[in-house]
Design brief:
Elements: H1 2-13, E1 18-19, E2 38-43, E3 47-51, E4 54-58, E5 63-67, H2 71-81, E6 88-95, E7 104-108
Parallel strand pairs: 5-7
Antiparallel strand pairs: 1-3, 2-6, 3-4, 4-5, 6-7
C-alpha cells in the first residue's frame, strides 16, 4: 500500500511539470560559478524539466534552476518543448543572489 501512496504523491507533485524526453542522465560535468555571471552553451539534453519560464538544468554534478529572460532563450525553450534534441544556445547565466550556494539563475544574451 505504501508504494501506491508514494506513486500518487510523486504524480501529484510533478503535475504541471514537463519532462524532457531528450534528457540524459550521463552528461559531462559542467562547472559554473554560483556567485558571479558565467557564459555557457545551453544544451537540450541537459534540460530535465520545464515549468513555465523556468527550467531545471543538469550540470552533471548538480541541478540548477534557470529563468528565461531573453528572446533567444525563449526560442531555445520553445525548441526544447517541441522535442528538438539538438537545440543549443550560448547565454550568460546571471545569479539571482550573490552566494556560493545559489541555485537560481536568469539568462542574458551574450554580447
Amino acid at each position: 500500500m505504501n508504494s501506491i501512496a508514494a506513486f500518487f504523491t510523486v504524480m501529484i507533485l510533478s503535475a504541471g511539470v514537463w519532462q524532457n524526453p531528450c534528457a540524459t542522465k550521463a552528461v559531462p560535468f559542467l562547472y559554473i560559478s554560483h556567485d558571479k555571471a558565467s557564459v555557457v552553451t545551453l544544451e537540450s539534453r541537459r534540460v530535465v524539466a520545464v515549468h513555465g519560464d523556468t527550467f531545471t538544468y543538469n550540470l552533471g554534478t548538480e541541478q540548477i534552476f534557470i529563468t528565461v529572460d531573453s528572446f533567444a532563450a525563449h526560442s531555445f525553450l520553445k525548441d526544447v518543448l517541441a522535442g528538438r534534441c539538438s537545440a543549443s544556445l550560448p547565454v550568460k547565466l546571471i545569479p539571482l543572489r550573490l552566494s556560493p550556494f545559489n541555485m537560481q539563475f536568469k539568462t542574458a544574451g551574450v554580447h
